[in-house]
């Protein structure tokens, strides 16, 4: 029987801020040169710690793609790849060691790989697109994320979109801020209502 993430569509698209944002499933091995470049970008290295030689990075992504509790996507803006996201089932993820996960809870990680979009306001529309995608295509009542507590930008992104910090958690590689986002609050938030003028396709 297919898992929650295996049932997710391979593509998704929305209009926000006058731009077309989208997701497409990672293509292996075609996307590896781009992912290698992103993982070695200066702004990515400390957070992701995947600045590996290509053979080791390919092994990493082969394992990730074979893991049926998650699905990997490339983030697009106007059809151009700008980042990468992992969407996963938290009850089957290591995050379940840090809070009591329900079977329907979902989570995501995000990487804006293209240096040209970093610090230019793209984190908010892409994070919101991923949240919309999850809630519209799963039975999740809650999304859980755990960014590094040192990354202040996440607090700004969460404000107004019903992502509420619960507590700090000590993970092996970071002290993380544990955020919950509940379905009803998300769709009723002023951020969501002001944000999307188009229907996802």
TrEMBL record:
- Its EC number is 2.3.1.-
Q: Which UniProt keywords apply?
A: Acyltransferase, Transferase
* Pfam families, A to Z: Acetyltransf_8
SUPFAM superfamilies per record: Acyl-CoA N-acyltransferases (Nat)
> What Gene Ontology molecular-function terms does this entry list?
acyltransferase activity
Is Acyltransferase there in the keyword field?
yes
Q: Where is the Acyltransferase MbtK/IucB-like conserved domain?
A: 24-71
* Coiled-coil features, chain-numbered ranges: none
**Pathway named in the protein's UniProt entry:** Siderophore biosynthesis
Name it.
Answer: GNAT family N-acetyltransferase
The species is Psychrobacter namhaensis
């Amino acid at each position: 029987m297919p898992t929650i993430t295996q049932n997710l569509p391979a593509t998704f698209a929305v209009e926000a801020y006058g731009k077309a944002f989208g997701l497409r499933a990672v293509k292996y091995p075609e996307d590896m040169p781009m992912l290698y470049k992103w993982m070695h970008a200066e702004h990515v290295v400390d957070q992701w710690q995947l600045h590996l030689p290509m053979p080791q990075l390919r092994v990493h992504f082969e394992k990730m793609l074979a893991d049926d509790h998650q699905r990997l996507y490339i983030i697009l803006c106007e059809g151009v790849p700008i980042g990468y996201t992992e969407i996963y089932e938290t009850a089957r993820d290591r995050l379940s060691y840090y809070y009591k996960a329900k079977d329907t809870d979902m989570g995501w990680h995000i990487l804006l790989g293209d240096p040209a979009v970093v610090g230019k306001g793209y984190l908010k529309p892409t994070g919101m697109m991923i949240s919309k995608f999850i809630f519209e295509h799963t039975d999740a009542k809650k999304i859980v994320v755990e960014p590094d507590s040192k990354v202040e930008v996440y607090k700004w992104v969460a404000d107004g979109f019903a992502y509420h910090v619960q507590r700090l958690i000590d993970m092996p590689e970071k002290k993380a801020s544990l955020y919950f986002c509940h379905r009803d609050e998300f769709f009723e938030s002023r951020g969501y209502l002001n944000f999307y003028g188009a229907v996802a396709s």
